[in-house]
Amino acid sequence: MNARLSYDEMKELLEARLKPKRFCHSLGVAETAAKLARRFGVDEETARVAGLLHDCAREFPNEAMIAEADERRLVYGPIERAMPLLLHAALGAARAAELYGVDDDAIAQAICRHTVGAARMTRLDKIIWFADMIEPSRSYPEVERLRTLARQASLDEMLLAGLTDSIKFVAEKGHLIHPDTIEARNELLLQGVTVPV
Fold it and tell me: pLDDT (tens digit, 9 = 90+) per residue, 113-163?
């Protein structure tokens, strides 16, 4: 693994490897994650780096994801095999170490969990997952409601709202719903979390 790059070096390398729209999205997630980290008492620099690199494996085309995952001996199941794009999360965690020198388990886990979520998510995991949904270039019907929650609700309330919206969206598209997403949502409901009206 390379020595850890500075944040500016990470940005420069990422910009060279991603399409402009994806790079812009990554910058938006980084800054949104830093703001959420400040609000919820998480290290801002850690959140900024995780946000910046969360999609770093999107440099690979979808059809290459399986081979890239196999090359790194990443474990995945039938849902990822059917929807290889989901592998960009685990691949991103690997690429953060390989290319950017980020040897930080918390960042790797947050990158790995940013797409479908998981049970027992850390505050950093939740921040990266949610920042990905609401960063400034995102535009979809529910985004303003979620941005309002980011200013007013608890982290778990925000996450529950986001997971619920995500499951509805994926179901309406007729796609597979990852069991980790359902488990993450069920865990919050079992803890008595509700979404503010």
Answer: 999 999 999 999 999 999 999 999 999 999 999 999 999 999 999 999 999
Residue 188: C-alpha distances to residues 15, 30, 40, 159, 164 (Å): 36, 25, 17, 9, 11
Cα–Cα distance list, 159 to 33, 48, 66, 132, 156 (Å): 13, 19, 29, 12, 5
Amino acid symbol at 118: A
Do 127 and 155 meet the contact criterion of CB atoms below 8 Å apart? Answer: yes
- Report if pTM > 0.90: yes
Domain ranges for the chain: 7-190
Element (H, E) at 148: helix 143-152
CATH architecture assignment, domain 7-190: Orthogonal Bundle (1.10)
The amino acid at residue 35 is K
